[in-house]
Amino acid sequence: MSDPFVAEIRIFTGNFPPRGWALCNGQLLPISQNTALFSLLGTTYGGDGKSTFGLPNLQARFPMHQGQGPGLTDRNLGEIGGEATVTLLSNEMPAHGHGLKAALSPTTGTPAPDVMLSPVNGGAAIYKAPSNPQAMAPQTLSPAGGGQPHNNRHPYLALTFIIALQGVFPPRP
């Protein structure tokens, strides 16, 4: 395998960084021992820029290319965003209805795919074949859901991201 570029990031299936590499976990490194890497990263990922600088932190993060594509918002190098969990508010959901239709008089006491609920009129027959369905009062159905956040992640496979501490300094075009 050829020598990596300094600051090159690779995916590695081990649980440690090989010699000459570091984990992309946001750790701070001394500038004095990593001048070539600092000249490429600067303080984009942290550090004070005097004695330390930070490595990218890809723990629980999905990498995204910087810049702006057609119809996309601009993403700056080192920008982070997104949420691991979200709670949807009613104004964030697509417009939809939960209307319930009912028949005016019952004919059977057995629910089935081709019958609908009907008000009970003193007997066991509470379902009827749909002929003239009527909308029920809006307060008949109450809101559902607990307002709790849900997981917002794509299906994933955890791997190790590593960054080259040494290697070939990348030439500019």
What does this structure look like?
There is one protein chain. The chain has 173 residues and is mainly β. The protein has a domain at 1-63 and 156-172: Alpha-Beta Complex (heat- and protease-stable fragment of the bacteriophage t4 short fibre, domain 3). 4% of the residues lie in helices and 17% in strands. The chain is rod-shaped and about 90 Å long. The two termini are 23 Å apart. The mean pLDDT is 85.
Write the layout of secondary structure elements.
Layout lengths: L8 E4 L8 E3 L4 E3 L4 H7 L10 E3 L30 E2 L14 E2 L13 E2 L9 E2 L5 E2 L14 E2 L8 E5 L9
Antiparallel strand pairs: 1-11, 2-11, 3-4, 5-10, 6-9, 7-8
Give a short summary of the structure.
The chain is mainly beta. It has 1 helix and 11 strands, in the order βββαββββββββ.
Task: Please report the total strand number as a whole number.
Answer: 11
Head-to-tail CA distance between termini: 23 Å
Mean pLDDT, nearest integer?
Answer: 85
Q: What proportion of the residues form beta strands (DSSP E)? A: 15-25%
InterPro entries: Phage_tail_collar_dom, Phage_tail_collar_dom_sf
Organism: Roseateles toxinivorans
Protein name: Microcystin-dependent protein
Pfam families: Collar
